[in-house]
Structures are given as structure tokens and as C-alpha cells.
Amino acid sequence: MANNSAVSEEFSTLPISIPALPSYPVPATHYVYLRRNAPKIATPDDSRSLYLANVPVDSTEAHFRALFSSLVGAGRFESITFEHDRKSVKISHEPAQAERLAKHHKKRKREEEELQHKKEEAAAELPDTWTRELHRSGSSAIALLADEKSVDSVLKAVKRLKKSKTYPIWGEGVKSGVPTFGSQWLKAHNKLSYPGNDAVQAMVDAYFTVFNRKEEEAQQLAKRLRNEPDEDGFVMVTRGSRNAPARRDEAEEAKQKMLDRQQKKKDEMQDFYRFQLREKRKADQLELLKRFDEDRKKVQAMREKRGKFRPEA
């Protein structure tokens, strides 16, 4: 109970009326919980964004645009990012060796070649098989509004809903163009899941074109890195011929050593005069301590000599 009260104090509750559907002919009320967005890693847009929890499973950007327009008027809502969009990771077509070493490859390519590579990678992507995506039950989203004032207006409008008891209707005001669910949705999925032999063959060809290009680039880079000498001027001999491509871990290790040597040389050049100044200060300090010790010994000798002096009677 204490935990639920803490949640209710932090979040504002936005009740939404779900109209009756042919598949479920009973109206219902869905509750969305929202608060100011405060992630662990701050971003420039945090002040004008809202964190939404327990979004409906059939949520789309059009649904939330219509919802916020009914609360605070049009023009306040900009976009929304769902939990699945934030966690999704793009599948890479690069070989493991190429993917790990590509970030060290600093050679610039011509714009035409780069554009061609992007087209090949886009052609290798698998097509979407769903015309509209369902979200996981209880998932979250980040709504981006026009400004911080719009966030305050939304939170105030949500508080007023408790008194009026008139909840916004989910899907009301959504413009046409949002794919519907039901049998049409499933039929479209079944059709998109079987694109045909020609389309599949084209994607496979594009995939292996990208894969082979990345693999060749990785082999050339790994071969160059294997020939980099270490700090003592030796080149590590590995299994296989010298012309064979290096293993991923060997290439990575050689590249890291090369980067460390370059950084070390750079630091040495930057700290050259700084090192001299530091050594000079250290020598001055030692000289000062030496003089201080000599003066201390002289004073001690004078005190001992004064103690032995006896005036004549």
C-alpha cells in the first residue's frame, strides 16, 4: 500500500475512455500514468517532455496527437517515442571482425561511393511484416511537447479531469491513414510475410554484397595492423601465413597497441617542456633543503661552541 501511494504522488493519472468494439462490446477505462521526464542521463529536451507509463497496446503517434490536442489544444504535441523504439537495435550486416574494427578506419570515402553503400545496406534490410505494431502491455513512452509551458498545461489539464469526470475518448479525432486491426491486419501480415522468390533473392544478393565488402575491408585493415611493430620494434608472428587475414582478437590487440603508442608519443611531446619545468622545481626544492640543512648544522655548532665558552676570572 505504501508503495502504491508513493507512485500516485509521483505520477499523475490520466483516465482514457476505451469505446466498445465488435470484438469486445463493453466500454472500459484505461489509466495512463504520466510525470515530467527525469532520466538518469539528462538530455536537452527533458524540460519539455513527459514520461508515460501503461500506454495502450494499440498506441500510435496519431492517437497521442489527438489525445493531447483534446487536453490542451492543437500545436502543443510534437512526437512520441515508445519503449520498443528506444530499445530496438538495428541488426548489422557487417562481419564480426569488420564491425569491431570499422570504428578505427579513418579513411574517408567519396560521397558517391558512400551513397551506393547506403543503398546496398537498405536493400539488404528485411521488410516489415506488420502494417501496425502492438506494444507490450504496461509499456512506456516519452512524449515530446512544444515547450515547458505545454508540459505544465498538460499536467494541469489531467488534474482537472478528476473533477469533471469527463474522460477523453481513445481514438477520437484520429485522422484516417492509421491501419486498422482485425482480419485485414492479419491478412496483410500474411501477405507481407511471403514477399516472393524474386524479392527474397534480391535481399539475399544485397546482403552478401554488403557482407563481402565489409569482410574484404576488415581483412585489409587487419593485415595492415598485424604488420605494426610493438614498442621494441618487433612484429608479433601469429599462426598462419603472413598474408592471411588476422584473427579478430589479434587485429584488435594490434590496433590498440598502435593507438596507445601514438597517444604516448603525443603526450610526451605535449609534456616535454612541462617535464623540464617539473624537474627544475624538484631540483630547486632539493637545493633549498640542502641549504636549510647546512644552516641548521651551523646554528647547532654555534650553540655548542657558546656553551663551552668560559670567561676569565
Annotated CATH architecture of the domain at 2-92 and 133-180: 2-Layer Sandwich
Q: In this structure, how is the largest beta sheet organized? A: 5 strands, antiparallel
Question: Compute the gyration radius: what is it?
Answer: 35 Å
Mean pLDDT, as a whole number?
77
Helix and strand element order: HEEEHEHHHEHHHHH
CATH class identity of the domain at 2-92 and 133-180: Alpha Beta
Distance between the termini: 102 Å
Which homologous superfamily in CATH is the superfamily of the domain at 2-92 and 133-180? RRM (RNA recognition motif) domain
- The helix tally amounts to 10
Compute the number of strand runs: 5
How would you write the strand order of the largest sheet?
A: 1-2-3-5-4
How is the quaternary structure best described?
single chain
Structural class: alpha+beta
Low-confidence stretches: 1-8, 89-94, 240-246
Portion in strands: 5-15%
CATH fold-type name of the domain at 2-92 and 133-180: Alpha-Beta Plaits
- Helix-residue proportion: 40-55%
Helix-strand blueprint:
Elements: H1 2-10, E1 12-18, E2 28-36, E3 49-53, H2 61-72, E4 77-82, H3 83-87, H4 96-101, H5 111-124, E5 140-145, H6 148-164, H7 183-192, H8 197-226, H9 248-270, H10 272-308
Antiparallel strand pairs: 1-2, 2-3, 3-5, 4-5
Helix pairs in contact: 5-8, 8-9
